[in-house]
Amino acid sequence: MIIPKYLILFRLLLAPTILLLAYFLKDDARSIIVVLLFLGILSDIFDGTIARKLNISSVKLRRLDSQTDLIFWISVGISAFWLNTEIIKQHTTEIICLFIMEGMCYAISFLRFGKETCTHAFLSKVWGICLLVAFVSLIGFSHGGFPLQLAIYWGLFSQLDVILIILLLPKWQNDVPSTYHAYLIRKGIAFKKSKWLNDN
């Protein structure tokens, strides 16, 4: 379990590094931050892949991965705001809604199960791709436009999916691909999970 943990730790350490670069170096750090962003994504892909290949994936590791993802993306988002304040301010209402939905995911999960959400749902994974494109556009090219809008609205869509998953699950469970799969779990209907969904 050492390699996946180190990859997660690496991504966790990238979060303050990106914040410090954006705060102190500002525009001069844009290219470096984009590179670190891709390194963070690669660490997220490979920690799950390696854990599955070595048959050492565990609920604890999945929860750690999920919370590290949250910290990483928040740090990237704050850095993007510092570097592109005016662009992001144009979407203040939508971004506030996004944070409210994220908070609701955690609040509902804690109220129902006493622990944080860890669904690793398919729509959330697609959202990760949308975030990557949006942040590369913002940080690398100072452009918001369609990539930023897509990331925001897909984020709202994916968070709604997570909320429905939490509400449908009869008990806490990690790695639930979608609302439909949560419904199957609630009904006691077995299904086979995609290997790709278990990797990240």
Automatic annotation (TrEMBL):
Pfam families: CDP-OH_P_transf. The chain crosses the membrane at residues 7-25, 31-50, 70-87, 93-114, 126-145, 151-169. One of its GO terms (cellular component) is membrane. Keywords: Membrane, Transmembrane, Transmembrane helix. One of its GO terms (biological process) is phospholipid biosynthetic process. GO terms for molecular function: phosphotransferase activity, for other substituted phosphate groups. InterPro entries: CDP-OH_P_trans, CDP-OH_PTrfase_TM_dom. The keyword Hydrolase does not apply. This is CDP-alcohol phosphatidyltransferase.
